């Protein structure tokens, strides 16, 4: 790297979990290399860490085949513009943070033009679409893997890979303080609390909001002293959920909507109803018993099932290699089924204690000082970084 020239890193994240990962990596890299610029697509956390975003990250935050198809032309246009930008203004290296359907195509082009490409978060080839390993090999210079079972897959395919652990395992306490969180939320020290996490995207709430509210109504009808917490990350998702409550005449539910504060709500809760995704890992790391659920369009669900390899989708079950928490998906995701599964967990202290021990083991396995490990792997591709 020429003396006096700032290092330029292209970086793209596609949703809230990628924004968190990217922000930690940016902070770690800035400590090592103060003369460094990040540009691409970034969420609020990455931007606060110093990244410049050329497009809103929310444009990429859609899930499911039909949902992606509705936005396909716009997403493709963004990727085309980004390719042109990076080819005209080549970064020293590029980091794609998750969002594989968007980033791998971009990475393939940049790699072909001599730009090192690092993909942060292995696509879930262990769960479905195993054929993507070949595409990944052509697209990336190096993979940063979050889970301990992933490196073997890439090593067998000849793809350079580093296991870095998961940053949430570094961030979250190994012994969460439920009493303190209840005090913070002005909740009773005793009594049963259920946290409900229906998703972070409006497209998810389209399928999940009414399901979660009807489930809460079922539980409240037999558990009069129950309290529900629903943390939502944006004004749009909060408004969507409140509209669903109005539609279902659920204004009398003992339910508190929180603007963010997911970790606080999870820690305070006895049990959790959570939409499949990164939030299931957060719940496990905070040692909370959970029921995992998810609904997509019928076509999206059909296509994903045909390509799936594992009998489970929730990260706690994937990490354990077996069902440790219930999963109720698609047609099985009904208010009757979900309410019964949650009530079973709520009243079974033996199962709760067993899950806490299982989740503690997961926490220890994933706690690897992720940002520093990822930073070290990235610096390997920075010319003369130690002299900067």
Descriptive report:
With 388 residues, the protein is of the alpha/beta class. It folds into two domains: 7-165 and 368-387, Glycogen Phosphorylase B (Rossmann fold, 3-Layer(aba) Sandwich); 171-366, Glycogen Phosphorylase B (Rossmann fold), CATH 3.40.50.2000. The chain contains 18 helices and 13 strands. It has a seven-stranded parallel β-sheet, with helices on both faces. Helix 5 links the parallel strand 4 (93-97) and strand 5 (117-120). Helix 4 packs parallel to helix 5. It starts with 6 loop residues before the first strand and ends in a 9-residue tail after the last helix. The model has no long low-confidence stretch (mean pLDDT 88).
């Amino acid at each position: 790297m020429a003396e006096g020239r700032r290092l330029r890193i292209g970086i793209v994240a596609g949703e809230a979990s990628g924004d968190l990962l990217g922000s930690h990596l940016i902070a770690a890299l800035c400590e090592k290399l103060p003369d460094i610029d990040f540009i691409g697509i970034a969420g609020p956390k990455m931007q606060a860490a110093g990244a410049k975003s050329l497009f809103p990250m929310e444009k990429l935050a859609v899930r499911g085949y039909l949902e992606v198809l509705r936005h396909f032309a716009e997403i493709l246009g963004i990727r085309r513009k980004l390719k042109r930008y990076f080819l005209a203004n080549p970064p020293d290296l590029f980091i794609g943070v998750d969002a594989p359907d968007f980033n791998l195509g971009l990475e393939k082009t940049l790699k072909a033009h001599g730009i090192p490409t690092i993909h942060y978060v292995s696509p879930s080839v262990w769960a479905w679409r195993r054929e993507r390993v070949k595409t990944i090999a052509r697209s990336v210079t190096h993979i940063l893997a979050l889970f301990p079972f992933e490196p073997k897959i890439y090593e067998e395919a000849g793809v350079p890979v580093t296991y870095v652990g998961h940053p949430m395992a570094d961030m979250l306490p190994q012994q969460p303080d439920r009493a303190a969180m209840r005090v913070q939320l002005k909740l009773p020290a005793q009594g049963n609390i259920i946290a409900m996490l229906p998703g972070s995207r409006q497209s998810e709430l389209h399928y999940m909001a009414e399901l979660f509210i009807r489930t809460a109504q079922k539980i409240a009808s037999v558990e009069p002293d129950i309290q529900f917490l629903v943390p939502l990350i944006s004004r749009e998702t909060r408004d969507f959920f409140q509209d669903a409550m109005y539609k279902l005449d659920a204004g009398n539910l003992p339910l508190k909507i929180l603007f963010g504060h997911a970790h606080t709500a999870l820690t305070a809760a006895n049990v959790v109803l959570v939409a499949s995704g990164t939030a299931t890992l957060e719940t496990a790391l905070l040692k909370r018993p959970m029921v995992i659920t998810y609904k997509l369009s019928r076509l999206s669900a059909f296509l994903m099932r045909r390509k799936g390899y594992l009998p489970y989708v929730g990260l706690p079950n994937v990490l354990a290699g077996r069902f440790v928490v219930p999963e109720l998906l698609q047609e099985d995701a009904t208010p009757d089924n979900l309410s019964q599964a949650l009530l079973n967990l709520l009243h079974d202290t033996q199962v709760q204690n067993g899950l806490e021990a299982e989740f503690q083991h997961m926490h220890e396995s994933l706690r690897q000082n992720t940002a520093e490990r990822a930073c070290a792997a990235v610096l390997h591709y920075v010319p003369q970084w130690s002299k900067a």
